[in-house]
Amino acid sequence: MIRLGVHRCHDPATQCPAFTFLVPQGWRAQSGLTWNQSLLNPVTPAAVAQSPDGAAWLALLPNAAYSWVDDGRMPEGSMEYGAPILRPRPAADVLLTMLIPRVRPGIGNLRVVAVEHEPAPPWPSQLSRRVQPGDDSIRATVEYTMRGRAFREIVSLVSRVAEPTPMPTLWGIRQVRYWFTFPALSVGGPVDRWDEYAEYLDTARRTFRVEPTWIQALERLFRQASDNALQQQQTWFAAQQAGHRAQVAMGEQLVHMGQDLSNSMDDIVIGGYEQRGAVYDRIYDDQYLATMGLSRYDDPSQPMPVELPYGYESVWSDGQGDYILSEDPSYDPNSAAPGPNWQRLDRTDR
Question: What residue spans carry the region label Disordered (predicted)?
Answer without folding.
Answer: 321-350
